[in-house]
Structure formats: C-alpha cells, structure tokens
Amino acid sequence: MSEAIKKPEAAEGMILMQGVHKWYGQFHVLKDINLDVKAGERIVLCGPSGSGKSTTIRCINRLEEHQQGRIVVDGTELTHDLKQIEAVRREVGMVFQHFNLFPHLTVLQNCMLAPMWVRKMPKREAQEVAMHYLERVRIPEQADKFPGQLSGGQQQRVAIARALCMKPKIMLFDEPTSALDPEMVKEVLDTMIGLAEDGMTMLCVTHEMGFARTVANRVIFMDRGEIVEEAEPDTFFTNPKNERTQLFLSQILH
Amino acid sequence: MQTHTFKPDLPPPRMSVGVIGWMRSNLFSGVFNTLLTLLAIYLVWLIVPPLLNWAFFDADWVGTTRADCTGQGACWVFIQQRFGQFMYGFYPSELRWRVDLTLWAAIIGAAPLFVPQMPRKALYGIAFLIIYPLLAYWLLHGGALGLSVVPTTRWGGLMLTLVIAAVGIAGALPLGIMLALGRRSEMPAIRVICVTFIEFWRGVPLITVLFMSSVMLPLFLPEGMSFDKLMRALIGVIMFQSAYIAEVVRGGLQAIPKGQYEAAAAMGLGYWRSMGLVILPQALKMVIPGIVNTFIALFKDTSLVIIIGLFDLLNSIKQATTDPAWLGMSTEGYVFAALVYWIFCFGMSRYSMHLERKLDTGHKR
C-alpha cells in the first residue's frame, strides 16, 4: 500500500444527501444524514453493526428507499420515478458482502449481462469490455468458469469487474471483505486500491482501517443511524474528537 | 529455515471385497436381514414367473380375430387389431398421415434445440414455439390450403391424449410462471387477482372443472353460441394446472437469495429483465423436479376427459373392450394403456433428471 495516492481536490458534486431519514416500520434507522461527495472522492464509512452505514450507501442506488430528505446522484434526484432510479443505477456500481454473482452464468457472462441488456452494447464489444476488466482484476483465465468454482476472493474480484463493466461513475462497496477468509482479504483490497488510484469515486463500508488510512479522503463514523464524526483519516485515527469514536477505535485497533 | 513436507495422497481403505463381500454386507448382514432377503426372493419367485408366462411365453401374438387366441396367456392380437384406433381414435384412416406428419414435424423441428453448438438457439426456440402450434392445428384440424376439416369430435386415442397433454403443458407453464410472479408482486391489485385465481383453481377437482366446462358452461353462454368441447377441456386443463405450476415456481422464487434480486437491480436491470435473465433461470432450474411432477400428473389426468365423452387413449381402449367380438379383453387393454402411460411418464422423469444434471453449475458447494 503506497502512501503516494493522489488525493485530488474534487470539483463537482457527485452525491448529495440532505436531511435523509429512513424508518423500518417504527424503527428510525437513518437520522438526518447529510453527505456531500465530490467526484473522485473516496469515503470510508465505519461504525458498529446496526449503525446504518450499509443502509446509507444502499439508499444511494435506491436498494433502500428513504422517506424524508433529498438524495441527488450525479445530477439525478432519486424519487419514485423508476426511470430516474434506473438512470442512477446505470452509473453506480455496487459490490456486496456476499458477492451476489449469478451462479447460473459463467464469470464472463456475469460481466457481459448488464452492458448488453442495460447499455445495449453489442455482444462482441461487451465481451471485450468484460475481458478488459477481468484482466484488470487479474483473473482473465477464470472467465469460462462458474462462480461456484472460484474461491471467495476470486468471486469478489469478479464482482468488482462485473460492476466496472458498466463503466460506473461511482462505486459502492458494502463490507466487501467481511465474508472472506483472512488469506483472501488482501487480493480484494489491492484491487480496490488500484481503483482508487485511477480516481474512481468510492464509498466503502468497511472495517479495514489500514485501507481507510491509505485510501480515504474522509472517514465517516456512524452510530445509531447518525453521522457522529467525519474527518480526514489522519485526524480521525490520531485525534478523534468524539468520545463514542474513541471508544469504537479503541475496540477495533488493539 | 525449516520446510514442511506434505504427506502424499493415499487411496481410501477397501470396505468390501468383490461380489461376496458386497452380498455379505448388503443382503446377509444379520439374521433379520437374511430372513428379509429370503422372503424377498420367495416373493419374486411367486410373482414374476407367472407374470412372464402370461405376458410372453403363453401369449398369442399373431392372428386377426378372437378365435386366434387359444393359449392361456395374454391375447395381444386384440391390441394389434385395434392399434390404429388406440392411436388415432376416429380420425379417418386415410388422413392419419396428417397426425404422423404433425408428430414428425415436432420431432424434427425440436431436434436442433438439443444440439449444444446451435447458434441463435433462443431465437429459434421462440420461432418454433410460435410456428409449430399453428402448423399442428392446420395439419390436425385442416380447413385451409386444401386440407379437409377433421372436427375435434373425431380426434381420439393416444393422439388426443398427447394433444391435451402438450397443449396443457405449453399453456400451463407460462401462465403458471406469470401467476407465480404476480403472487409475489408489490402491486396489491395484481397480487390479489393472482392469489384468487390460484386458490380457486387449486380448490376444485379437475373432474369438476371438466364437467362444468362441458355441461354448465353452455347454459351460461347465449343461445346458439357454442365452442368446441375439446377447446373447453383444454382451457380447463390449462387453468387448473397453471395454478399448481404457479405454486411450484413460487417455491423456487422464494428460494433465490435476496442478494440476487439486489445485484440485478443494482446493475440497472429493470423488473422484467431481472426476472427473465437472473431470477427465473435459477428458480426454474431449482424446481425442475416439481414442475415435471406436475407435468406427469397432468399427463395422467388427461384420462379424466372420459367424463365429458372425449375418446382419449384410455376411453378408446375401454370402448374397444365392450366390442362383442372382443369380449373379455379388458386386462390386455388396460395393461397396454398402463404401459403407454408409463413409457411417457418415465420418459419425462428421466429427461428431467438429465436436465438437472446438465444445468448444474456447481454453486451448491
């Protein structure tokens, strides 16, 4: 992990969340979330389980619906309009904790599906794009295997390649390394660092603090549905302001 | 530094030695099991030889009338003489080539779908599914382009059984899938309609459905308006079986992890594409045994059309056994019927097992 990743002063706003609230039934999961992400920014969200960090990023591509406030992604506001939602999802790639590859399709077909059916890309071109990104995550030789035949780390790298094939402007990572065996965490993190080096706008929910330290522009700490603290990684790790943040950090950084 | 040397892979230990070892462990592993084995052998001895004698060794195979059956065994002459009727019902004999041609068209038309390397298979499959029913209707029913009309009242035998089964399957599967999707829809109106439909048709016996379609429906239709009895039976079968298919498919849909729906949605695939490209291929694959089970039941249930006076395979045979010239032939007739039903049902069952193996991509590790 190099310290030399450029952290560009971002210009335009990519994601804007203003006063976002969400409830599951009576349970108030998100309370007044305000977030402004510029193009090329890399944000790490952390916090105890049930703090609403996954829900926050899942609101950005409308896998979860917010009930109050505004979310604007790359100029498109998320409303009940299905067209708008699909427009946002085309530009936002997502990587899940449990990979969620399609087990009935080969690795290559997994990567070609969305470009062909959503972007209407011709088959040959979709195949080229898929192979390009599979090479980038360094598993082109697995292209014709089924996901069930790969290791967890390989599957997660395929999932990253699959999301990249749509050439998204924003990538969301929902605990991408939490379901992996310890030996496989590094290969996935290295792939993500590579993405960051290329200037991708990224939001990562993760407990990998080493990753947060090297890659993030900002670290956001959430607890009980609220953003408790938001700071640059250096400040965040060495000099957390909030008592709750200090407690959390003391528990995960032994 | 020390380097660890790994031990070599060894073959597993031998559990048994040869045929005798296998028999000792599987058939005679104790007093009780030995007794069971001997009892089973005795039962086989009791049942199988007389059955073989009746069906093969003492049976009469050649002849033209009942008088040619002199032996103690089965009189297969009866089946042979009436074979045409069992296959085609009252379809005019000089036009039976049209039925044969329909069957050959199905076999030849569907054959490319089983060639793994065939390009544009999906497109061909859809074209086949659209063109073939029209062709089959034209060949069987006629009435256009120089083919004379054969009304459905003259259809019968195995041909009618296959028509009902094929139309029932081809109609019930897509309708059932749509109902299953509708039952899981987020739109309350659609959900209510689908649930009502499914629960209604699952709640009535098929025999009632057929009876109602044949006897009651004409009472509700305006004077002078009637439509074909076979058509009514077909619609009844499709409605009835689609409700069962819907519940089988719903089981598959529920077994697909939520993450699959989310991954498809997150890519920007809309509802229909998510379902068609991601969810249904997995869900249907998972419920192949259940779907084929329903198809087998459907195939056997076609024999219930006897209640509305259609002459399917079973009814044709029943009819033939009442012929004064062939009295006392019901055993042969029903054994033949059972054999034909069994061949088709067993064929479906084996094909579904083959399909399961073929579609297994090893994700259930």
Automatic annotation (TrEMBL), chain A:
Q: Which Pfam families match?
A: ABC_tran (PF00005)
Q: Which GO terms describe its cellular component?
A: plasma membrane
- What is the protein's major site of localization? membrane
Q: Record's Gene3D superfamilies?
A: P-loop containing nucleotide triphosphate hydrolases
Q: How does it sit in the membrane?
A: Peripheral membrane protein
Tell me which InterPro entries the record gives. Answer: AAA+_ATPase, ABC_ATPase_HisP-typ, ABC_transporter-like_ATP-bd, ABC_transporter-like_CS, MetN_ABC_transporter-like, P-loop_NTPase
Q: Which residues form a coiled coil?
A: none
UniProt xrefs under SUPFAM superfamilies = P-loop containing nucleoside triphosphate hydrolases (SSF52540)
* Sorted UniProt keywords: Amino-acid transport, ATP-binding, Cell inner membrane, Cell membrane, Membrane, Nucleotide-binding, Transport
- Recall the GO molecular function terms of this protein's record: ABC-type amino acid transporter activity; ATP binding; ATP hydrolysis activity
What is its subcellular localisation?
Cell inner membrane
On whether ATP-binding is a keyword of this UniProt record, the answer is: yes
Q: Which domain of life is it from?
A: Bacteria
Q: Which family does it belong to?
A: Belongs to the ABC transporter superfamily.
Protein name (Swiss-Prot/TrEMBL): Amino-acid transporter subunit ATP-binding component of ABC superfamily
What is the native source organism of this protein?
Pseudomonas marincola
Q: What is the lineage of its organism?
A: Bacteria, Pseudomonadati, Pseudomonadota, Gammaproteobacteria, Pseudomonadales
Gene name as annotated? aapP
Automatic annotation (TrEMBL), chain B:
Q: Where in the cell is it found?
A: Cell inner membrane; Cell membrane
Bilayer topology annotation = Multi-pass membrane protein
Q: Which domain of life is it from?
A: Bacteria
**CC annotations in GO:** ATP-binding cassette (ABC) transporter complex
Broad class of where this protein is predominantly found: membrane
Membrane-spanning residues: 27-48, 95-115, 122-140, 160-182, 203-221, 233-253, 290-314, 334-353
- Pfam families given for it? BPD_transp_1
Identify the InterPro entries for this entry: AA_ABC_transptr_permease_3TM (IPR010065), ArtM/GltK/GlnP/TcyL/YhdX-like (IPR043429), MetI-like (IPR000515), MetI-like_sf (IPR035906)
What are the protein's GO molecular function terms?
Answer: transmembrane transporter activity
Could you give a single Gene Ontology term from the biological process aspect?
Answer: amino acid transport
Q: Does the keyword Transmembrane apply?
A: yes
Q: Indicate yes or no for the key word Transport.
A: yes
Q: Keywords for this entry? A: Amino-acid transport, Cell membrane, Membrane, Transmembrane, Transmembrane helix, Transport
Q: Which family does it belong to?
A: Belongs to the binding-protein-dependent transport system permease family. HisMQ subfamily.
Spell out the protein name for this chain. Amino-acid transporter subunit membrane component of ABC superfamily
Q: Which organism is it from?
A: Pseudomonas marincola
Gene name of the encoded protein: aapM
